[in-house]
Write a structure and sequence with these properties.
This protein folds into two domains: about 5-80, no CATH class; about 90-145, no CATH class. Helix content is about 40%, strand content about 5%. The chain contains seven helices and three strands; from the N terminus they run H-E-E-E-H-H-H-H-H-H. It has helices at about 10-20, 60-70, 75-80, 90-100, 110-120, 130-135, 140-145; strands spanning about 25, 45, 50-55.
């Protein structure tokens, strides 16, 4: 099954979702290069607080790059251009948060996000995005929790990271 593309969703919903984080979306003409795209087109691009997309950009890529913006600290956001950088635990937090945010897009949802991440080649120790999320992502949950990006009920707080804390702490059990 092909991955869900930005042309196949109501972009107003994506705009509304990401606007909560102060992230703007700039659409790029088809076949044009995507500014700030680390992996090159059709992957989404990031420059400061603007997410660059084309109609053929996968929705998982748009949410992944948006979550990089959400998960990085202020200093990195202020200087953001193409390479989000970050630690391995932050990358796990990004993947976890993109799964959570997928539930806020009617056309996407968690099951589709799992499928699209697997189809695109995200790799996890347990062999699939769903297995990782359900059985092996406690560190990502804890990182998001201590950075106030989700609450203990595993719901987004609609805040961006202020000062990244690199190390997970003991927390209540995860409720996904």
């Amino acid at each position: 099954m092909p991955v869900l593309l930005c042309s196949e969703i109501n972009l107003k919903h994506l705009h509304s979702l990401l606007d909560r984080y102060g992230l703007a979306i700039q659409m790029v003409n088809d076949n044009a290069s995507i500014p700030g795209s680390f992996w090159q087109a059709p992957e989404a691009g990031l420059i400061k607080n603007t997410l660059y997309l084309r109609s053929d950009t996968p929705v998982h890529s748009a949410l992944h790059e948006a979550c990089h913006y959400i998960c990085m600290d202020e200093r990195r956001r202020d200087n953001l251009h193409t390479d989000a950088g970050g630690t391995a635990i932050e990358e796990n937090g990004v993947c976890y948060l993109q799964i959570l945010l997928s539930d806020y897009l009617d056309e996407m949802g968690r099951a589709r996000m799992f499928s699209d991440m697997d189809e695109w080649g995200y790799s996890f120790r347990l062999g699939s995005a769903k297995a990782w999320f359900e059985q092996d992502a406690e560190d990502a949950f804890e990182w998001l929790l201590i950075n106030n990006l989700i609450n203990t009920d595993c719901k987004p707080t609609w805040q961006v990271c202020i000062k990244s804390s690199r190390y997970p702490i003991k927390s209540p059990p995860r409720r996904a």
